[in-house]
Amino acid sequence: MKSIFKMELKRAFCNKLFLLVVVVGCAMATAAFFTTNAWVLTKAWWFDYLPQTQQGQLMASKVQTMDTALTLWMPNRGSGSPFYYLFITILPILAAIPYGASYLTDKKSGLVNQITVRAKKRDYYLSKLIVTFLNGGAVAVIPLLFNLLMCMCSLPLGKPIYATLFYPVKDFHVLADMYYTNPVLYLIIYFIFIFFVYGLVNCMCLTFTYLEENKFAIILTPFILVFSEYVLLNYGLRMGNYALFWCASLFYFEKRAAAAVVCQLVVLLAAAASYLIRIKKDVL
Amino acid sequence: MKKRRKIIIPVLLVCLAAGLAAWIGYVNSGIFPSTKIYMVAQGEWMENETTKVRVNKATLYNKEQWESYIKSQGIKKESQFVEENKDMGYSMSYSEDNYYILVMDIDICNTKEEEQKILPESCITLTNGIYSRGMYKDTYYSSVLQGGNGKSVYRIDLKPNEEAGAKCVYVFEKCPEEFALERLALGRNQRMKLNVEWAGETNEG
Question: Domain limits at A252?
Fold first, then answer.
């Protein structure tokens, strides 16, 4: 198991496509920083407030609170940026590009036969599932983390203050108390949650190899599933804030949507696990 | 070449991570105003550039307690005041079916080197815990409790370093579980957890 897992990890992460996707994600994160108020605020604090220019002195007398890295962060301030929206919209496709269709490629090239002759079938399929999950999660998290680091290099992390109304998390959002009292822990949970969601979404590529044998269709499958659910719920039932696409960012995850999101995650988990049925059924 | 690359890339990555950590440390080292919220005990001063405020007592009334209190003080009910001054365009921000009133006895001190006309309730923000939802300041009761006529907001004239007492009245239809006061000032954000006494537990009401 260990050697197959290691091999699959290497195929997923030491991969030019993975690097390309991460670079594209980070480029969008950078563009989101420079095309929103994040850059304007950074300039104001660094080039006016710190050198105490006339503008800076006026700012110090008028402004009541210090902006923080969380104010600038892409899912918060950057949500006004088309680059953030583009990133979050095409994220299921980006996550699937490096490794989503690898099982299909292995199958078509006959590599599955080669591997399963030398190792246990169970180990191969399980490794494939875990690595697809990790790969999808990593593609989702790295650009967000990159943008957060950019923001942390610009302004101090600090504690958000509800009264300023600079922050999107309201008392009806999940873990809102934690956001205002322990933002570091909240951020850790934010990253774990989005990693988990896009990891599972990426596993849909494996599940759908049962039904589809076209590589491009497989790569598009997670996007079609996630986005069509959002469109259906939002435009059909006016319940867009219950969709996984919406709630994947904890900032917008409302408490009343918790049960619906848990159900969606359970369905995804079951669908991902159904891929393992192949261990017994796959015809070599 | 491959061997050299194997050494150079990790070394570069470690240097990059160390540089990044050092820069983030510098940004967070206090070159910018703090975003920390300083907790202030009830009875201590909350300060900003122009004034400082201290809460002596906070008393909470339910509808019945409040109505009997204002009756004993000879103060008209707000609804009666609004009815009598219909032409002035006054209105009420709450329903009289059920409501709660919080009265804060505060001291205000002018910390500026010039005379100031101060509106007491604008010096602080009353919130429900961490969610600083603006609670309605009742300008009518705030005014009449301090000897005003209720028709205009009550302001205090304070000379430099002069201190005066004031009453701030807040009204809400749903009683919050906790109260806090906030004062946001660049680098000196302060919050005070308010110990509220029910009117029945005090001599008032």
Answer: 2-281
Residues B59 and B154 both lie in one domain: yes
Range of the domain at B97: 34-201
In tens, the pLDDT along A73-111 reads 988 865 678 899 899 999 999 999 999 999 889 888 888
Q: Is the dihedral of CA A238, A242, A244, A245 positive or negative?
A: positive
Identify whether residues B130 and B194 lie together within a single domain: yes
CA distances for B147 relative to A33, A159, B77, angstroms: 54, 41, 15
Rounded CA separation B49/A100 (Å):
58
Whether residue A164 lies within 8 A of chain B, CB to CB, comes out as yes
Partner-chain residue, chosen from A153, A162, A171, that has the shortest CB–CB distance to B27: A153
Task: Spell out which residues of chain A touch residue B182, defining contact as CB-CB under 8 Å.
Answer: 163
Which residues in chain B are closer than 8 Å to A170, comparing Cβ atoms? 131
Question: Do the beta carbons of residue B23 and residue A153 sit within 8 Å?
Answer: yes
CATH number for B148: 2.60.40.1240
- What is the average pLDDT score of chain A? 89
In chain A, residues with a C-beta closer than 8 Å to the C-beta of B32 are 45, 49-50, 66, 155-156
Overall domain count for chain A: 1
Q: Which of B27, B125, B130 lies closest to A156 in CB terms?
A: B27
Binned at pLDDT 50, 70 and 90, residue B131 comes out as low
Report the chain A residue with the minimal C-alpha distance to residue B182.
Answer: A163
pLDDT at site A111:
86
**Distance in Å, alpha carbon of B195 to nearest chain A alpha carbon:** 21
Q: Give dist(CA B183, CA B118) in Å, integer.
A: 15
pLDDT at A282 > cutoff 80 = no
Taking only the tens place, the pLDDT of each residue in B20-58 is 999 999 999 989 998 888 889 988 998 877 888 999 999
Nearest to B186 among A63, A159, A180 (CB): A63
Question: Is B59 at the interface with chain A, CB within 8 A?
Answer: no
Question: Do A59 and A49 touch, CB atoms closer than 8 A?
Answer: yes
Residues B181, B105, single domain; the answer is: yes
ipTM above 0.85, yes or no: no
Nearest Cα of chain B lies from the Cα of A163 at a distance, in angstroms, of: 5
